[in-house]
Known about the structure:
By secondary structure, the chain is of the alpha+beta class. The chain is 45% helix and 12% strand. It has a 5-stranded mixed beta sheet. A two-stranded antiparallel ribbon has the order 6-7. A hairpin with a 7-residue loop joins strand 4 (168-172) and strand 5. Helix 2 (45-54) packs across helix 3 and helix 8 runs antiparallel to helix 9.
Amino acid sequence: MNAPAMPTAATLPLSAGDGPAAAVLRRLCDPRPEIRPSASASVPLGAVLEAAIDAKLVCLLAHRLLGGPPDASLSRPMRSVLGQIVRANTLHNRLHRGEAVRIVRTLTGRGVPAAVLNGLAYDTALYPPGGLRQFTDIDLLVGAADQDTALDVLAELGFTEQGRSPHTRRRTTGDALMPTVSADITTHLGHTADPAEVRAALARTETAHGPDADGKLPVLARADALRHTLARLATRPRWSTLADAARLALAAPDSSREAVAAVPEPLRAGWAELHSHLPDLVPGPPPVTTGGPGREEVAR
Length: 300
């Protein structure tokens, strides 16, 4: 089991630059409903679509474009294509949610605590219904002692094909649109690999309700999810992670300026990254004490 990497300044910049398309991506990451992207004349819709596809934010873009006021520059065929993209991702997420519920139920029956992480967890708990959060795998957190049991459960449920990592398993679905589904078992969080801390986080899980009665999934408590996501944003910055962190910063209880001072040092780089892109959404990192009295510097 590898410990999570510590954030470094070299990993922080997101890749889309500071152009107008990146400005649209930042607005897509902002969860506040009054912040809406526009395909203005200075930003051709094609460039915005390309940037959103590369950033895995195209469903958020489609949702906001289709949900906004009628735009004469958005043709009927374009509206149809955007709608198809969102509907396809809705089916993708629904299929993965159903599989995750099946896996978690089986693990629970074996006495194995588990939590759904990352894309599926955030799609269920943070985003409006409609498949707006794009992701690839079902990410499942279990304790280190339960990893082998979790892999055995996946095999029993038909996940027998080796995936992209030693602890990823795939199974075929028979669905023409989504022919495979993958599950990735992990025993650490972005901010910690300590088994005791992971067990504590599993004991604090909350229930996220999907769009149907059987869509209940255990997810990290908001404060734990914020720490996990800030660490991921610092070590492997992605636009989709920025969007997750922004929503968690608004929803988590420790997102106020006073509570930010309690953010552990390794996570301040993630908070600084979040602030640098959405400065009016979250405050900047607080001063960091580096030694004796009077020796403080601001984390940037």
